[in-house]
Amino acid sequence: MGINRDRLQSHLEELAKIGKIGDTGVCRLAHSKEDRKAVEVVKGWMEAAGLKARIDGFGNLIGRIDGSEKDKPILMLGSHIDSQPYGGRFDGTAGALGAIEVVHTMKDNGITPKRTIEVICFSDEEGSRFNKGVFGVRALAGLLEEGELERKDKNGMTRKEALKEFGVEPDLTESPVYKNGDIEAFLELHIEQGPVLESKNKPVGIVSGISGPIWLTVTLEGFAGHAGSVPMPLRQDAMVGASEIITKFDHLIKEEGQETTVGTVGSVQVFPNSRNIIPEKVEFTMDLRDIDLEHRTMLEKKLYTIIEEAASTYKLTYTITEDTRSEPRYCADWIKAIMSEEDKKLGYESPVLMSGPFHDALFMSYISDYGMIFVRCEKGISHNPLEFAEMDDIEKGVQLLYQTAVRIAMDEEG
Question: Is 260's pLDDT higher than 90?
Answer without folding.
Answer: no
